[in-house]
Amino acid sequence: MTARLAAATVILAAAVALPAGAQVLDGRKDDEVFSDVSKTVLAYPQFTIFDDVTAVVADGVVTLKGKVTMPFKKSDIGKRVAKVSGVKQVDNLIGVLPVSQFDDELRYAVARAIYGSSAFWHYASMANPPIHIIVEGGRVTLTGVVASNVERMMARSLATSFTALSVTSDLKTDQEMKALLDRKGVG
After folding, report:
1. How far apart are CA 115 and CA 131, in angstroms?
2. DSSP secondary structure string, 23-39?
3. Burial tier of 144 (Cβ tally within 10 Å: 0-12, 13-18, 19+)
4. Residue 185 — very low, low, confident or very high, per pLDDT cuts 50/70/90?
C-alpha cells in the first residue's frame, strides 16, 4: 500500500467531495488544502486506530466529520486544521465516542485480533496503521484501506469473533481508493 493511499484513508470523504474545478484561495486549490489537512490530521500525535476523521474541502471551508475517543481530540484536530494555509473556516462536526468500559474492551480485542493476525502484521508496523476500529455502543465499524478484497473480508471476519452487537466494514481496497482519487484528480 502506498503512503499516498494510506494517508487518503483517513479522509476519504474529502476526495469524494472535492469539486471538479477546485477553487483557488490564497493561491491554493482546494485539493492542495485537502492534502495538507490530511497530513495535519495524520501528524496529530493523539490520533489512533480508534479514531476516524474525514474531511470535505470546498472553497476553503473544511468540514470535519468522524468519531474520536476523547473530547480534546476533536478540539485539537479542529485547531490544527484551522492553521492550514488556505483554510478560511472549519466546521468541526467530529463526534466524541461515549465512555464505556465494554466498548474499550471490545476495541482492544478487535485491534489485537486484526493487527495480531499474521495477515496484517505489515500494517501493524506502520506509523499510521490503515485499519481504524470505531466502537460505539457495542457496534464495530472498520474504516480505512486494505490491499485487497480478501483482506477486507478477513478483517471483518476477525472483528466478528467477539461480543459485538454488529460489525460493519467500510474498508476500501487500494484499487477502489486509487480509482476514487483518480476520478477527482486528487494527489
Report:
1. 9
2. -EETTEEHHHHHHHHHH
3. buried
4. low
Q: Domains of the chain: which residue ranges?
A: 3-96+176-184, 101-174
Distance CA 110, CA 80 (A): 30
**Could you tell me which of 37, 57, 56 has the C-alpha nearest to residue 47?**
37
| Class in CATH terms, 101-174 | alpha beta
pLDDT tens track for 91-140? 999 999 999 999 999 999 999 999 999 999 999 999 899 999 999 999 99
Q: How far apart are the first and last CA of the chain?
A: 15
CA angle 150, 156, 158 (to 5 degrees): 100
- Number of neighbouring beta carbons within 10 Å of residue 113: 18
Beta strands at 61-68 and 95-96: parallel, antiparallel or unpaired: parallel
Contact 90, 64 (CB under 8 A): yes
The band of 161, judged by pLDDT with boundaries at 50, 70 and 90, is confident
**Residue burial 158-168, b: 16+ Cβ < 10 Å; e: rest:** bbeeeebeebe
